[in-house]
Design goal:
The chain is an all-alpha fold and 490 residues long. 68% of the residues lie in helices and 0% in strands. The chain is built from 23 helices and no strands. 53% of the residues are buried.
């Protein structure tokens, strides 16, 4: 690839926006980049701002609903909080290390995985992540439908339509607008939640400790897995929102900001949910949040419900945005393309329509569905995460020929047997350990229902991929990396 080609804007790193639609003309509002490389002169932001962003992603009544899972399985408040805290930390560390890839590579999360799985091979984990994003959007929309219907008697379909419209708008406007929305909601929400938490801790909400309940290993691991899953399943999202950071961003600062943000929010609200479930017998997170807030003083619960719902809509927005980038990656694998603003907008709308249609037909058995889906997504994503992180930190150590990621005949090949083999083996080895409402693996049965499948699914493929790469000569990639760096500098 020549400097003239770069200047002409025909390369895949600075893909031009074609067409002259109304959306294309909104230069200052709608993000122009998609799966392409973000040049250094367009980088902006700081590591610490990632903290509030990912805090808000976990700071909604959906996280409160996750706190109900322990109580539903007979776990006490203390054990539920501990299980949630450990799971949140485990998951946030995994996603935080993925976050460091954004500033270094300047690419969305999933297209980076061509280096581990190949130009076409990446389709397998990318398709899985599309289901992940849509699955979360469906569940979160369904929780909003049910909550506002129970709380105010609003029409569930209308609620779902409004939620989907808001998510689509945020996805269409893209990266910067999502960051703005998240930061605004963060600062608006914190004071009201602090008031409710203070009332809860000082006894102003009443509540009675249950006479029964205790420790149960299977229930404890279910809470751990749910919390870990909620954070790990953000891993395919995270580089999408750190890729605009300058390359000089310190990885340690970024990891600290992400871990602090995601852990604090999830532990806080899961603990709140566990308290409401064990002390008041609450079964609907949004209703419980509203009722407890209004008990403290008039309309506090209403404000909390609205802010929490807006936070969840914004989170569905990042799911839609990341799903759109994943779909663009799939299309680009099949036929190299230039995603325009109009194309990205149409894709975002199509994604929310699919999510909407599924969510309005999902039903009301939320806790079982939430737990099952979260665990399945954890099983699917953990092997990808292990392969990706081992490659980035131990095999290639952050050095990639970015231009070759966009080439079918590049150094990463069409199919990488190393990454794909490790991934599929990682999926298979989890089956005997899996614990779901409709299936329990034989080893899980022997462990009395304790779920350690995702731990096996992280360790085995990671070690396998490292072993598969033991004879691979990384030095052969150096000329391509040097050439890529020269192209990016030009």
């Amino acid at each position: 690839m020549t400097t003239n080609e770069l200047a002409a804007g025909t390369d895949p790193l600075h893909r031009p926006d074609g067409g002259e639609s109304a959306l294309d003309k909104a230069e200052g509002l709608i993000e122009k980049h998609s799966i392409d490389y973000i040049p250094e002169h367009e980088r902006h932001g700081t590591a610490w701002k990632q903290g509030p962003f990912w805090f808000l992603a976990n700071f909604s009544f959906f996280s409160i609903a996750l706190g109900f899972i322990g109580a539903a399985q007979g776990l006490t408040l203390g054990w539920t909080v501990l299980g949630g805290a450990l799971g949140a930390l485990f998951g946030s560390l995994a996603m935080a290390f993925h976050a460091t890839q954004g500033p270094i590579l300047g690419l969305p999360q999933m297209i980076q995985s061509r280096a581990q799985f190949g130009y076409f091979g990446v389709l397998i984990p990318v398709v899985a992540t599309v289901f992940t994003f849509i699955g979360f959007s469906v569940l979160q929309t369904n929780v909003l439908q049910t909550g506002f219907s129970n709380l105010y008697g609003w029409n569930p379909v209308l609620i779902a339509v409004l939620v989907s419209a808001g998510a689509a708008i945020l996805s269409i406007f893209g990266h910067d607008w999502l960051h703005i929305a998240f930061r605004a909601l963060f600062w608006l929400s914190i004071p009201f939640y602090l008031i409710l938490t203070a009332a809860m801790m000082t006894g102003h909400l009443g509540g009675t400790a249950p006479a029964d309940g205790g420790f149960k290993a299977s229930a404890f691991m279910a809470v751990f897995a749910t919390a870990a899953s909620y954070n790990i399943t953000l891993a395919p999202d995270i580089a999408n929102f750190t890729r605009y950071l300058p390359t000089t961003t310190k990885s340690s600062h970024l990891v600290l900001a992400v871990v602090a943000g995601t852990c604090t929010a999830l532990v806080w609200l899961m603990a709140m949910g566990a308290w409401l479930a064990t002390r008041t017998g609450a079964t609907d997170a949004l209703v419980a949040l509203s009722d407890s807030g209004n008990y403290v003083f008039a309309n506090l619960g209403t404000v909390l419900a609205i802010l929490s719902a807006l936070a969840l809509v914004a989170t569905i927005g990042i799911n839609t945005y990341s799903a759109m980038l994943s779909v663009a990656t799939i299309v680009d694998c099949i036929r190299p393309t230039t995603p325009t603003r109009a194309m990205k907008s149409i894709t975002s709308i199509a994604i929310v329509v699919v999510s909407l249609l599924i969510s309005i037909n999902l039903g009301t058995d939320q806790l079982t569905k939430i737990n099952d889906l979260m665990v399945i997504l954890l099983y699917v994503l953990v092997p990808w995460s292990a392969v990706n992180l081992v490659d980035f930190f131990f095999v290639r150590k952050g050095h990639y020929a970015i231009t070759d990621i966009f080439k079918r005949d590049g150094i990463y090949g069409l199919w990488s047997w190393r990454g794909l083999s490790a991934y599929f083996i990682g999926l298979l080895v989890q089956i005997p350990f899996a614990v779901l409402s409709f299936y329990k693996g034989p080893i899980a049965e022997a462990l009395d229902g304790v779920d350690i499948a995702f731990i096996v699914g992280m360790i085995v493929p990671g070690l396998l991929y490292l072993w598969f790469c033991r004879g691979y000569n990384i030095a052969e990639e150096v000329p391509a990396i040097v050439h890529s760096d020269e192209v990016l500098e030009d």
